[in-house]
Amino acid sequence: MDDDVVHRVLQEGGRDYYQETPSTSSSSPSILQSLPLHASFDRGYYLLVKSIQELRSKKEGIVAVGIGGPSGSGKSSLAEKVASVIGCSVISMENYRTGADEGNDLSSIDFDLLVQNLQDLLKGKDILTPVFDFQQKRRIGTTEIKSTSFGVVIVDGTYALHARLRSLLDIRVAVVGGVHFSLLSKVKYDIGESCSLDNLIDSIFPLFRKHIEPDLHHAQIRINNSFGQSFRDSIYKLKCKSESESGQPAYSFPKKEAQIDNFIEMYLRPPSASEEARVNDWIKVRQSGIRYYLSLGDRRIVDKNFIIRPKAEFEVGRMTLGGLLALGYNVVVSYKRASKSIIYDNLSISLETIDTLSETYLVLRGRDRKMVEAEALRLGITGPWITRSYLEMILDTKGVPRLNTPPLLPTIISPSSTHKEPPLIAPKPLRIRPELVNRDDDMSQPWTRSPTKSKVEPVLAPWQFISSDGSSIDPSSFRDTHTLQLAPMPDSFDLDRGLLLAVQAIQALLEHKGMPVIVGIGGPNFKYDDFRSLDLPLLTKNIGDMRRGRKAKVPVFDLESGARSGFKELEVSEDCGVVIIEGVYALHPDIRKSLDLWVAVVGGVHSHLISRVQRDKSKAGCFMSQNEIMTTVFPMFQLHIEPHLVHAHLKIRNDFDPVLSPESSLFVLKSNKQVAYQDILKLLDPKKICSSAQNFIDIYLRLSGIPSNGQLTETDCMRVRICEGRFALLIREPIREGDFIIQPKVDFDISISTVSGLLNLGYQAVAYIEASAYIYQDGKLLMEVDHLQDVPGPYIQIKGANKEVVVAAGSALELDGSYTTKSYLEIVLEKLPASERNSSGINVQQAARLQELVENIQSQQGSSSSSESSPSREVISPMEGVIEDMQSRIKRLERWQAINTVLWTFLMSAFVGYSLYQRKHQ
């Protein structure tokens, strides 16, 4: 584990399993005996999945997991992500409500029934869990959970780590952050220093410190969820009036079973805000029955006809709204929204009636912009499209309410109920008596509180413009738009806020400077060569042509041949007035002078590799600083890239970890059963199918000195794949669950200097595999047929982001029962006779080829690369020869397959073409 990992032996609480003596059959400690004190959402998810798998393999019966935390922290999202990977039953504590009272109140949860249900399930009995309807505010039935359905049960809820449940749980997970932290930071900013953080917590989340926070310190996995409002999973929306100007319906709503919803939407203005309509400063609260959903401001992007919104709503307790009112927030706008919706194929179409506007609107929503646009065309809906929000339309008709004006809706009444709820009373801040506070050793740790410093402004400020001399100006009154420049943002931002700011900057530039807007995005994305290898004159000419509205002939570089393979034309038009120049040197002084917006991005897998090296070094008994690793593994970054990133208009810290995140995973089924190529083609969309052939070499790197049980496993290795002149790194060992291999769906390109740096840090090349792959894909499914050298028979891999689609494809090919989750490294080692293995356990002939590659790098790189001093030109220059020589050696090793690949590609292309022709004319 990383150096911040503390060994937390699970001896108190938990079930009897923890009291058993740990197994000594392996030299590696149990993952449950060394978990991080605090983890990110992505890493916490990965640790939880691995912990569940380990417990399930070592104990009988059901593994019980509790995921607790405050409202809006992301615990339900975590349970959902884990359930998508591991078959499990999720028990939501929300369904154990006893009435319509505040859900965070302990007395509103039927603990007796929940405990009895969980005890029965652990004893192997089937149970009936209640179903609570939040519109009707009562229980409406039950759902059966069979004890034999899954081997894992997750209890998800604010009080999932309560003392009455802890003794029944095998794994306890606490999640804090999300909107919980974001709201605290927002309110802290709005009201200033007049109220301490503890008092804010007591006002907005009055039950948190007394009833929730003490239980979180009993968790074994503690997650700080930095995810807030994100455009990573945006909703694309088209909106028009339900009737055209002639009075005809814009769309004939089908007579299908529709979902009916009634909402009250309220906008709260901060106590210190002016009376001007700065809706981005307002807090939105949506009431649905007895549930309340909160979003911070009107975060959206308008592009042409589309309204693009982030995943921005999070459920909070009713007392949170009362606390905000007590702190001085005012409900300045409120309205009722009645919605009738039909959902199909990841799309929804809704009729929404807004009482304040006395108007009904037709709204199409979806996660895919092209799909929403295509559906509108298919249904014959042509607009005219409305891009203003309901709030903006209300403000246009009624004006901005003054601060001393009472809210438009003085009482909060659910339109679906016939009786009035009790008035909303703002709670007084709680004062916890000292004897009620849990005296855990780490109670003083701030991990359960907002990590945002009070001096950091959580509200995104608008972009400012400056003239060429650096003075601030009003762009609307400035005549010489060519000299307009953006003023750099003083702070750095996370990926979600950075994405929003980047789009807002582009829109501001389009409005005040016009087309084209040329954006440069720079940062370490691994594969960087010497800046002198770039054709700067051609790039400058391309940028100049696009700025003048001319067609630009942009070169296409072939990584396999190491040369240009041709050109493609790009032209700026009304439909696309933005050009993005992306690359590690995009912010170099010779390039950025031609750009309008400079964006620097750091983090991601770049940081993950550094953490991985530190982890391995720690296992081997030594420690290396980040600077030492950077100097060795990324020598060109510090010398040629990092100095230019500090000048960016927008600096983004990408804390999102694609190596561990469930958002970037592929579900893979692997089998060595023979499959006919025509059967593969039948499963793919003939309009989108494409095929290719590849040769690749996999090299496995392992740090010397890491304790092992004498066997070579992927767990302690990093895999480098050499394919078509590219070097791609796989750091994470895939998750294996049932028949599935779950792995990151993106490759991370690295330069050969990074491979050399890893070798100089003490990593040893311990395995080598040669193979060829034939790939067929249509955008939803990827079918890969791999032929491994020295392994008889091919392996087929079915890959996709949708688990059900992958399962269906495997069943259609009659592969059920033939799957394996073994890696190719395991397969090669198993099939290798003992007489042909060397001391590392791999084929002697392969070891010789592997050694040839390694010696070539090390002989030319020399020992100077392992120096801990800053890199110099003398250290870097030999790498030019290494790259050239390494590429030629790889090509010699692949040459034995070249003729076969060419012939196979030709034959298969002809076969695919003939098959498609036949299918088209049937």
TrEMBL record:
Biased composition (Low complexity): 22-31, 859-872
An example molecular function term from Gene Ontology annotations: kinase activity
Residue intervals of the Phosphoribulokinase/uridine kinase domain: 65-223, 525-652
Protein name, UniProt field: Phosphoribulokinase/uridine kinase domain-containing protein
SUPFAM superfamilies xrefs: CYTH-like phosphatases, P-loop containing nucleoside triphosphate hydrolases
Keyword Repeat appears in the UniProt entry: no
Keyword Aminoacyl-tRNA synthetase: no
Positions of the UniProt region annotated as Disordered: 11-31, 859-878
Family matches, as InterPro entries: CYTH-like_dom_sf, P-loop_NTPase, PRK/URK
The organism of origin for this protein: Lactuca virosa
Keywords: Membrane, Transmembrane, Transmembrane helix
Residues annotated as transmembrane: 896-917
Domain of life: Eukaryota
